[in-house]
Amino acid sequence: MVIVAGHITVEPRQRESYVAGCVSVVEQARGAAGCLDFAITADLIDPGRVNIFERWESQAAVKAFRRSAPATSKARQCSRPR
User: Fold this and answer.
1) d(Cα 5, Cα 73) in Å, to the nearest integer?
2) Exposed/middle/buried for 25, CB within 10 Å: 0-12, 13-18, 19+?
3) What does pTM read for this prediction?
4) Is residue 56 within 8 Å of residue 1, measured between CB atoms?
5) How many CB atoms are closer than 10 A to CB 65?
6) Cα separation values, 9 from 6, 13, 34, 50, 72, Å
7) d(CA 54, CA 65)
8) Is residue 68 very low, low, confident or very high in pLDDT (cuts 50, 70, 90)?
């Protein structure tokens, strides 16, 4: 099993729209082969923090998802602050 966990920092006033813009990335990841869990969530304490958590069956599953063109395109859209 592979776990990817971390966070990013966004402008607090943009956090809600940022997280909302990531819905399609989360949906696609959760539907990907080997994905056991995938979440992008607003932190409960820090208004500028977005937490990221991924759980995959294998490193190969992570790599396959990262290489997929739709995933890459949507991740770029998600990473642009609104």
Assistant:
1) 21
2) buried
3) 0.84
4) yes
5) 22
6) 10, 12, 28, 6, 20
7) 12
8) confident
